[in-house]
Amino acid sequence: MATNSVRAYFLAAFDGIYTTFRGMQITLKYLNILRERPITLQYPDVKPDIQPGYRGKHVYVKELCIACRMCERACPVSCIGIDIEGKGKNAIVHSYKVDYAKCLFCNLCSEACPVDCLWLSQEYDLSQYVRAACAMEMIDPANANLRIPEKAKVAKPPKPPKPAVAPKPKVEEEQGLEGKL
Ligand code: SF4
Ligand code: SF4
Q1: Which of 62, 71, 119 to mutate to test the pocket of ligand 2 (most atoms within 8 A of CB)?
Q2: What topology does CATH give the domain 58-149?
């Protein structure tokens, strides 16, 4: 009995020392003592690598826009505000604002645009000091010659196959024949 309790005592002591050592090993890694690559970035001096598919600030090309308001209607949180004068081909867009205090970055507005003049870029730094400044004007003359990049295009899902036409049930025909007989 005494041997077993001594053995259990030393096993527990060893387990305690081992788990403490493992914990410290992980902690020291984050302190860069073991020459591991640091996981923190000295932002804003060092910018993070943005992953493909990231959805950030909108790019809007006024020169392509047909003022159809499809994007505005598609937005689930009504954070797009377009100021349009006139109708149809004579419509002029005076202002195109997106409120980033509400935007979900869902991309529905871009998908709804029939002329690909709106898409989400990889610009992530949208912080502002006051809430009102989050509603940003998207009209930028520098965008005049921009076109939607390949990666921003949303592949349209293939059309579902037409359901096969079911053959007419023969029951009616048979019933009709029975009636005649
Ligand atoms: S990304 Fe979504 S939430 Fe943001 S403006 Fe477009 S539709 Fe609205
Ligand atoms: S859906 Fe496209 S074309 Fe229509 S108003 Fe919006 S940005 Fe302009």
Answers
A1: 71
A2: Alpha-Beta Plaits (3.30.70)
